[in-house]
UniProtKB/TrEMBL annotation:
Pfam families: ABC_tran (PF00005). One of its GO terms (molecular function) is ATP binding. Residues 7-248 form the ABC transporter domain. Keywords: ATP-binding, Nucleotide-binding, Sugar transport, Transport. This is Simple sugar transport system ATP-binding protein. It comes from Rhizobium leucaenae. Belongs to the ABC transporter superfamily.
Length: 256
């Protein structure tokens, strides 16, 4: 295992009944690396990250985290192994405040473990800090309900939550979907900030331009397989990657 290897997926296969959604997929993510996962509709991207986030069981193959083989039977086990996933319909609770959402399920308690109550002021203070850190400079009080935030601000809160619990790997499934230009830039900035503070990310987006702005490496899937896993966005054009996604161009042709 390379010293900076964080996650390794080895020969992962996934069947949904008779549909073979993942075919011998192998890939790695390094520490402090942002990887873009691209592929057409039905290529297998969502299935792959659902397997890695413990949301669906794999049929065969291995997942190795920091050199140790793990079984991710549910999302709690993935989280315990340092993998936090922010799905499109991110799991924030709209009726609750930003602060409560940031600490959901892991709230700080004041007093004893059994007779304590939520430490609201500690939560609010950390929430204020965190919002500043992810670039929400507008003065949004941490007591604000999620329902009152824009799409970009919600993504920011979801990313801030993953950063604050020091997940090693943050998986972002279409985080820029339906966002405006400024909000998209905000999300891309949070991804950079996550990397700069030591996290790794897998970034899935249909918009290749967004992926190109932020990733260190691109992996392309087609028909349930990884067809390219080492595309350097600094040395490859968007048009070339588009042709790999559709199958018009093989990676070897680019490398040659
Ligand atoms: N729950 C499921 N039951 C049966 N088949 C499924 C299920 N989820 C996905 N599939 C199938 O598995 C294959 C891969 O789908 P997946 O959603 O992983 O692709 P994707 O690359 O994420 O596509 P998109 O970009 O459209 O989200 C497709 O053929 C899809 O129809």
């Amino acid at each position: 295992m390379a010293e900076d290897e964080l996650v390794r997926m080895e020969k992962i296969n996934k069947f949904y009944g008779r549909i073979h959604a993942l075919r011998d997929v192998s890939l790695t993510v390094k520490t402090q690396e942002v990887v873009g996962l691209l592929g057409d509709n039905g290529a297998g991207k969502s299935t792959l990250i659902k397997v890695l986030s413990g949301a669906v069981p794999l049929t065969s193959g291995e997942i190795i985290i920091k050199g140790k083989k793990v079984e991710l039977k549910n999302t709690a086990e993935a989280i315990a192994n340092g993998i936090e996933t922010i799905f499109q319909d991110s799991a924030l609770v709209p009726q609750l405040s930003i602060a409560r959402n940031l600490f959901l399920g892991r709230e700080p308690i004041k007093g004893s473990r059994f007779f304590g109550r939520l430490d609201q002021s500690a939560m609010n203070a950390s929430a204020r800090d965190l919002l500043k850190r992810v670039g929400i400079t507008k003065d949004i009080p941490p007591e604000t309900a999620i329902a009152a935030l824009s799409g970009g601000e919600r993504q920011a809160v979801a990313i801030a939550r993953a950063m604050q619990f020091d997940s090693d790997l943050i998986i972002l499934d279409e985080p820029t979907n339906n966002l405006g230009v400024a909000e998209t830039q905000g999300v891309l900035r949070f991804v950079r900030e996550a990397r700069d503070t030591g996290h790794s990310c897998i970034f899935i987006a249909h918009n290749i331009h967004h992926v190109f702005q932020v990733v260190d490496r691109i992996i392309v899937m087609r028909g349930g397989r990884v067809v390219a896993d080492d595309i350097d966005p600094k040395k490859t054009t968007i048009a070339q990657v588009e042709r790999i996604i559709t199958g018009e161009e093989m990676l070897n042709a680019i490398k040659g």
